[in-house]
Design goal:
The structure holds two protein chains of two kinds.
Chain A: E1 2-4, H1 5-8, H2 18-28, E2 31-37, H3 38-41, E3 45-55, E4 63-68, E5 74-79, E6 89-94, E7 98-100, E8 106-108, E9 112-114, E10 117-119, E11 121-123, E12 140-141, H4 151-154, E13 160-165, H5 176-186, E14 209-213, E15 221-228, H6 237-245, H7 253-265, E16 270-273, E17 279-280, E18 283-290, E19 295-298, E20 304-307, E21 312-315, E22 321-324, E23 328-329, E24 342-348, H8 351-361, H9 366-371, H10 379-394, E25 399-400, E26 404-407, E27 417-420, H11 421-428, H12 434-443, E28 447-449, E29 455-459, H13 470-481, H14 502-516, E30 520-521, E31 527-528, H15 530-535, E32 556-557, H16 562-570, E33 579-588, E34 594-604, H17 608-625, E35 632-636, E36 650-654, E37 657-664, H18 667-672, E38 680-687, H19 688-692, E39 710-719, H20 724-734, E40 739-748, E41 757-766, H21 775-793, E42 796-797
Parallel strand pairs in A: 14-18, 30-33
Antiparallel strand pairs in A: 1-13, 2-13, 3-4, 3-6, 4-5, 6-11, 6-12, 7-8, 9-10, 15-24, 15-25, 15-26, 16-24, 17-18, 18-21, 19-20, 21-22, 22-23, 27-29, 28-29, 31-32, 33-34, 34-38, 35-36, 36-37, 37-38, 39-41, 39-42, 40-41
Helix pairs in contact in A: 6-7, 7-10, 11-13, 12-13, 14-17
Chain B: H1 3-19, H2 24-32, H3 37-44, H4 50-72, H5 74-79, H6 100-114, E1 118-119, E2 125-127, H7 128-131, E3 151-153, E4 156-158, H8 164-175, E5 181-190, E6 201-211, H9 216-231, E7 237-241, E8 247-258, E9 265-276, H10 278-283, E10 292-299, H11 301-308, H12 321-324
Parallel strand pairs in B: 1-5
Antiparallel strand pairs in B: 2-4, 3-4, 5-6, 6-10, 7-8, 8-9, 9-10
Classes of the chains: A alpha+beta, B alpha+beta.
């Protein structure tokens, strides 16, 4: 809501400058989004008089003018407008003035030489002054305009505007009067009500319109007045300028006056051309009803709109829709330059109906944004009387009818809210003095009854439907009294040690372990394109779609972190060949369930076995960081995945339970993403809930060997058909007494190693536990192991 | 012996004398001094044929440069006695990083844990009731328009605020007779908007306290403590009235941020807050005659962007290694 401060001063006299006033608004009721000084906008623009205008000697379409701009200053200005003539009063943009061109860009007037003739400024058109979307020639001012007067002052645009953010609960603040009431409360100043026409004392014509309201729930109150003898013209400059400052474009007298009253009081009004209303049985009727499915109406924005049964429609006597109530009028019944007889509507409609229709049609108007917040039903007649007052002062010839006011049960019982001072301080944490309490509420329009030492009864005004419980009244008190006056304390209640949250806590241990191992944590958007999901091997029906996606790039919820990672590797980080990343977050299944997972991606050009072994080491370290030393086992997974290379998928098993999988992303998927250059991509996914359940048991200290161990290294040439897993299982099976541990070290294949085999080095540790071993003893055991291995796996010793 | 061989000989002998650790100044004098061997040799060049002048002159000059270097840099020679150059720069090892959003969540939740708040988490897909109705958003009330949501059909949507977890969690704790409650709820939230300051997905954290007596003044106290821990002791804060359906009275919390380079001061909104609306407590099954509470919800990205001077929120989800690697202090 934009408010011009000169206009506001009609209702409350504030002593604060615009910045201070804005500050008070921020601290007590509404955020201020901007302070706009229109004087600065129109600097160096003055009223001038054209003394002479002669043809430019070297250009057909240009004129040379001498313009009196006051203070004895006469400027030579080259003008291109065809309508320039001597003795005109015009707006002169002097050197330094800023002109706003149509495209929103501005330019500054400079001294110029145009075809050899000096020009010290510019004569402005209405368009160049921002007074019209389009205009021909320069703007001619009436003879009464004073030479040398600043344009802003002449046009009543020398004002400062505050742009306020009104919260959705405060329909009453969508008006100058509502905002003035706030100022009158926090500044403790008088609120001045605008003048209304006193129809009771006037000679009125009869009102020829019949009003029918089908359901008072959709239109609790419908008031209207009829007028004739209206002559279409522009409204006075002061009205135009006030509208302009408040962000509304002036159109014609009747429209401007209704908009003026809407801004002033918050009540939207609608005008019908009486002569365009269809008659039925000699009567003209306005009927408020629900829409009929598939009804259509051609509205003022020049589109045909389809009507639904939940919309509120104003129809004529024949049943034809005229207006989508509270939103937009129809073209058919709209007033025009020829209109002389007008029906004015001032009604209250159901806020939720209006919001519904406005959202469905995608039309948000000044009227709908007020209706949807819920309007005060007491406003309708007042607003009509205000319109009459203003019109009578401008066109005294207009004749008015009496007001038709249709309502049944619109008057809601106003709540009586009983509040004790104790309750106030129990919410706020401090006392608000009782005299302040009474003043604040009274100024805001509350009735304060039964005021005693301990408490009072507050009845909110009709325009404050948002106030219904104790807490609402406390908010009114504390915001005006001042949030900044509330002391700061710490809660005094019982304190318990915070309970651990295993998933949250372990997720951070995982983040630390993986980042220490060189992995970067990623956070991707949880929505992506369908294309990205299918490219990664997922089916479209495995995903959830947003009903109204913002764009095709963000229409599906991710079924896995893989699509985002692959896209990242292919685009954002394509210049890196070695990438190690992880992500922790929710993924979504087509049955609307979600799962917290840890995903890991490794892109490499190094030897896959080495990279995998490094990963196993990093992951074992991660599991240890959760406080558990159990070994992690990898086994081939039977469940296939569309995105893994055949045979590469491994289950990752912890205490006989699969907690995740790892595998190599297939070449087809990678080539779909154009991930090239001999890059291998490993992808792993873990169920975070399962990892989170790995409990942090205290580590139990194990005694170190008392006597020295003897180590032996053995390098064997192993057939590729024998897996490390087989070797380890066999060693476990035959484990002789003195062998305490073995470690598989370097693995090598290539030059010097027969095709189809690899060389594997194993380190054996022997210890007698309660005695020192001799070489002879160890050699004997070691040889047994060698013999058994040779026999079992048909291998050779290097 | 021709002059070329003579030059080789001088170089060889000089190097041997250096190896034998003769006094370098003496060696210099006898080779490169005014009457030194190489100096005398150089003087002979002028009498040679033009062709020889070129070849011998070039070689003699190179020898002079080499020997001058060997004999005039005794400092380095002394320091390199163990043959290791200790001055090599750091290698380009790559380290991992924790995402700045996660790090900020950790930092914020740690502050609240110090005040005895538990961490609670919830689903990202929620029902209309959980996201709106239970939180006292009226049906078809324009307050819903402030939360342009991503709906999924079947009355489901992606939560527009972490406050959606509030009623679910409070109800659970109330049932388990775990009142009073102090919880923080960090997590992802979603709204239907995208521009440099708004992302379709962003993160929030709610802090909720329900007890038999706690007030706006406690809320201010906790917030002041939190801001001081997060931004340091000299940050000015302000409370101003606002509207949320789920709190009454409601406020927004701003900090006065000073741009570290330009010194420009600006109020920045960091949180919305208020006393929990009695209807919300009722919806959680809590007796609002006995208990009251407050809550505040804040953006995770906002303080992060302020702190690191990140202008486009979407950078936070780009996952470019060039971006992520700048935050390797988070480990």
């Amino acid at each position: 809501m934009k408010i011009a401060l000169n206009w506001l001063s009609d209702y409350v006299k504030t002593s604060l400058n615009p910045e201070k006033l804005a500050d008070r608004f921020v601290y007590t009721s509404s955020e201020v989004e901007g302070i706009i000084d229109w004087n600065q906008k129109y600097t160096n623009l003055v009223v001038g008089k054209v003394l002479e205008a002669i043809k430019h000697p070297d250009a057909d379409k240009l004129s040379l003018t001498k313009v009196d701009v006051g203070n004895g200053q006469i400027l030579s200005i080259v003008c291109g407008a065809p309508n320039v003539a001597a003795n005109q009063k015009v707006v002169v943009a002097q050197v330094g003035a800023v002109i706003y061109a149509k495209n929103g860009e501005s330019f500054t007037i400079k001294e110029a030489t145009i075809r050899g003739q000096k020009s010290m400024g510019m004569l402005c058109s209405a368009e160049e002054l921002g007074l019209a979307d389009k205009s021909e020639g320069i703007l001619e001012l009436p003879e009464s305009a004073q030479i040398g007067n600043s344009f802003a002052e002449y046009y009543n645009l020398n004002d400062t505007v505050l742009d306020l953010e009104i919260t959705p609960n405060r329909a009453d603040l969508m008006s100058y009067l509502g905002l003035a009431r706030e100022v009158s409360t926090f500044e403790k100043k008088e609120l001045i009500q605008p003048d209304l026409a006193i129809l009771e004392n006037q000679k009125l014509i009869s009102n020829p319109i019949t009003i029918e309201v089908d359901d008072s729930k959709i239109a609790p109150r419908f008031s209207s007045i009829y007028l004739e003898n209206y002559k279409s013209e522009s409204s006075p400059i002061w009205i135009q300028s006030r509208l302009r400052l408040s962000g509304i474009k002036p159109i014609s007298l009747i429209v401007d006056v209704t908009n003026y009253v809407m801004l002033e009081m918050g009540q939207p009004l609608h005008c019908y051309d009486y002569d365009k209303l269809q008659e039925k049985e000699g009567k003209k009727t306005l009927r408020v009803r629900n829409g009929i499915e598939n009804e259509k109406l051609f509205v003022l924005d020049n589109t045909e709109r389809e009507i639904k049964s939940k919309d509120i429609i104003i129809a004529d006597g024949t049943g034809a829709p005229l207006v989508i109530a509270g939103i937009m009028g129809g073209k058919e019944s709209a007033i025009s330059a020829q209109t002389t007889r007008i029906v004015l509507e001032s009604a209250t409609f159901s806020g939720s109906c209006i919001r519904n229709t406005s959202r469905r049609l995608g039309i948000r108007t000044e009227a709908s944004s007020r209706y949807e917040k819920g309007l005060d039903t007491e406003l309708t007649v007042k607003a009509l009387k205000r319109v009459v007052y203003l019109l009578q002062s401008i066109q005294p010839a207009i004749l008015f009818s009496n007001i038709h006011d249709v309502h049944s049960t619109y008057k809601k019982e106003r709540p009586k809210i009983h509040l004790t001072f104790n309750q106030v301080s129990q919410i706020v944490g401090t006392n608000i003095p009782s005299n302040e309490t009474k003043n604040i509420l009274t100024k805001l329009g509350f009735q304060v009854n039964n005021f005693t030492k301990s408490g009072f009864e507050a009845v909110p005004p009709t325009w404050r439907a948002d106030v219904s419980i104790n807490e609402d009244v406390v908010e009114e008190l504390v915001r005006i009294w001042g949030y900044d006056r509330i002391p700061t304390t710490l809660p005094s209640g019982k304190i318990f040690p915070p309970r651990p949250n295993e998933v949250f806590d372990n997720a951070f241990k995982i983040r630390r372990a993986l980042s220490a191992a060189g992995f970067n944590e990623a956070v991707h958007l949880s929505l992506t394109s369908t294309e990205n999901i299918t490219r990664a091997g997922f089916k479209e029906d495995e995903t959830i779609a947003a009903e109204y996606p913002l764009s095709k790039e963000m229409e599906k919820l991710i079924p896995s972190h893989l699509p985002n990672f692959l896209k990242n590797l292919a685009t954002t980080n394509h210049q890196f060949s070695e990438v190690k990343m992880f992500e922790i977050g929710h993924i979504f299944h087509s049955d609307f369930t979600e799962e917290q997972v840890l995903s890991v991606v490794i892109q490499t050009q190094q030897d896959l076995v080495q990279v995998l072994r490094d990963w196993k080491s990093d992951f074992q370290r991660l599991i240890s960081s959760l406080g558990e030393a159990t070994d992690i086992v990898y086994g081939p997974s039977s469940q296939p995945n569309a995105y893994y290379r055949q045979g590469s998928k491994q289950d990752i098993v912890y205490q006989d339970k699969s907690i995740g999988q790892i595998g190599v992303v297939s070449e087809e998927i990678l080539s779909g993403y154009k991930i090239k250059g001999k890059k291998t991509v490993l992808f792993a996914q873990f169920d975070l809930d399962l990892i989170a359940r790995i409990s942090a048991n205290p580590i139990k200290y194990k005694e170190a060997f008392v006597f020295p161990s003897i180590e032996r290294d053995l390098t064997i040439i192993l057939n590729n058909s024998v897996l490390c897993r087989n070797l380890e299982a066999y060693l476990k099976q035959i484990k002789p007494a003195l062998l305490q541990a073995w470690k598989i070290g370097s693995v090598y294949s290539g030059d010097g190693i027969p095709l189809g085999t690899r060389s594997v080095t194993i380190n054996f540790e022997y210890n007698g536990l309660d005695r020192s071993l001799t070489d002879v003893e160890v050699n004997k055991v070691h040889q047994t192991i060698i013999d058994k291995l040779i026999k079992q796996f048909n291998l050779t010793i290097k | 012996m021709n002059l070329l061989e003579e030059i080789d000989q001088i170089i060889l002998i000089t190097k041997k004398r250096i190896e034998a650790k003769e006094n370098l100044d003496d060696v210099f004098y006898s080779v490169l001094g005014r009457k030194g061997e190489l100096s005398l040799l150089l003087r002979k060049i002028s009498s040679l044929s033009d062709e020889d002048k070129k070849t011998v002159g070039a070689k003699a000059n190179l020898a002079k440069i080499e020997l001058t270097q060997l004999l005039t840099t005794p400092e380095i020679a002394k320091n390199e006695v163990d043959g290791v150059d200790y001055s090599y720069p750091a290698s380009n090892k790559s380290y991992g990083s924790i995402h700045p959003i996660s790090a900020m969540i950790k930092e914020m939740t740690d502050i609240f844990r110090d005040l005895s708040f538990d961490v609670a988490l919830g689903n990202e897909i929620v029902t209309e009731e959980e996201n709106f109705d239970m939180l006292n958003f009226g049906v078809d009330h324009p307050a819903r328009d402030c939360h342009d949501s991503l709906t999924l059909g079947d009355n489901l949507l992606l939560r527009t605020h972490t406050t959606a977890v509030q009623v679910i969690e409070l109800r659970k704790r109330n049932k388990d007779e775990k009142l009073p409650v102090r919880i923080v709820v960090p997590g992802k939230t979603f709204r239907r908007e995208s521009d440099p300051t708004h992302s379709l997905m962003f993160h929030q954290m709610d802090a909720v306290l329900v007890d038999d007596q706690t007030t706006l003044s406690d809320l201010k106290g906790i917030f002041a403590y939190f801001i001081e821990r997060l931004f340091g002791p000299n940050v000015e804060t302000r409370f101003r009235p606002h509207y949320f359906p789920f709190t009454e009275p409601s406020a927004e919390l701003d900090i006065l941020w000073t741009h570290p380079e330009t010194g420009e001061k600006k109020w920045l909104e960091v949180a919305g807050c208020g006393m929990i609306h009695p209807n919300v407590l009722k919806n959680a099954g809590i007796n609002s005659k006995v208990y009251q509470g407050w809550a505040f919800g804040m953006s995770i990205e906002r303080p992060l962007m302020i702190r690191h001077q990140i202008k486009d929120i979407r950078l936070l989800y780009s996952n470019s290694l060039n971006f992520l690697n700048q935050f390797n202090n988070n480990i």
